[in-house]
Amino acid sequence: MEISFGQTIQSVEPALAPRPGESEVFVAPGWIDLQVNGFGGVDYNSPHATVPEIAASIDKQFATGTTRFFPTVITGAPERMQAALRNLAEAKATLPAIEGLHLEGPYICPQDGPRGAHPGEWVRPPDWDEFRRFQDAAYGHIRLVTLSPEWPGSTDLIERLVGLGVVVSIGHTAANSQQIADSVSAGATLSTHLGNGAHPTLPKFPNYLWDQLAEDRLAASFIVDGIHLPPAFLRVALRAKGLEQSLLVTDAVAPAGCRPGPYHLGEVAVELHPDQSVRLRGGTRLAGSALRMDQAISNCIRTAGLSLRDAVVLATRNPARVGRVAGRQRGLNPGERADLVRFRFQNGVFQILETFVDGALVYSY
Q1: Residue 11 placed within a domain
Q2: What integer pLDDT is reported at residue 14 of this predicted model?
Q3: What is the distance between the alpha carbons of residues 5 and 222, in angstroms, rounded to a whole number?
Q4: What does the buried/exposed string (b/e) look like for 157-192 if buried means 16 or more CB atoms within 10 Å of the residue's CB?
Q5: For position 16, what pLDDT does the model report?
Q6: Residue 6 forms part of a structural domain
Q7: Per-residue model confidence as pLDDT tens digits over 171-202
């Protein structure tokens, strides 16, 4: 196809014939990732991350085809979380790839299993005044909050967040059926990395995975790195949610795009292993991922049997709609933001050739 664009797409026309050597070259909307804790050695949870460091990590994400994302701050000491949010908000002023901020915690389940890699000493019940301090530190840019609705007061917090236009997601939870139902009625619309952040053993039924899979008003994000989810669960979950209510996230942390070794996720010591799993240092519990979004799309095609077109939708239009990313919800259509990725896809592998943000070339192979 032939696409004319400035900052926005102006026209899309079918090409008369592919250019020589480009029969396997495609153009798509740029990937959108609603959950990125760090990348390229930069930890977005660090109170010391500088704008140049954050910018360098984004440049590395452009090479994967990602054009918009939500830097994610996890559970931690209040002052550290506020400092991290402030750093990211300052970076957003000059880095348009930062669409909004994702607050994952601290209002999550304190139990081992659902808590995941979040530090238990800082997990706490919902606190509206504290959230306002977080939002002030973020200059109003928190657009997504992951919480567990099992806490007293969580329904009230959800209603207040939704009233501000913040997307609320259920995650790191051990909530019962009624608590999940109440949270959806209050306005929660997403399940964060469904299938992860859970007990290793659950009752046959009821349990909080079934409850979220069965709730048609909840979309669900999935980490498809071949480590977090077995293929059978992924296929069943995609069937349950439907392709329109499913989206891919990387949940990438600082070691993504780096060599194996020791790193940090906020206050938590983690290690990237040779098999590309990121785990608590000295333990086995997963702590985010080293996943790239182009790999997530490829993995979804291979393990879930999706077409390239459908898998790309899970990384573009769906997260744009669920995350309320303006100008990105209609795909390659005139008037949409010119966030584009040009790539070759052969034998199940992506080769990113060019990435554009707001019509500007930000990466070229």
Answers
A1: no
A2: 79
A3: 32
A4: bbebbbeeebbbbbbbbbbeeebbebbbebbbbbbb
A5: 53
A6: no
A7: 999 999 999 999 999 999 999 999 999 999 99
pLDDT in the model for residue 24: 84
Q: Would you give the DSSP letter of residue 19?
A: P
Answer yes or no: is 223 within a domain.
yes
Please report, to the nearest 10 degrees, the dihedral formed by the alpha carbons of residues 168, 174, 180, 186 taken in order: -40
CA atoms within 13 A on the CB side of 204: 0
How many beta carbons lie within 10 A of that of residue 92, not counting itself? 20
- Which amino acid is located at 212 in the chain? Q
Query: Cα(281)–Cα(198) distance, rounded to whole angstroms?
Result: 20
Q: Which of 18, 14, 49 is nearest to 264 (CA)?
A: 49
Dump strand ranges (E) for 126-218.
Answer: 142-147, 167-170, 190-191
Q: Report the domain count for the chain.
A: 1
**What gap in Å lies between CA 86 and CA 134, rounded to an integer?**
9
- Tokens matching residue 260: 């194996």
- Residue numbers of the chain with a pLDDT score lower than 70: 15-23
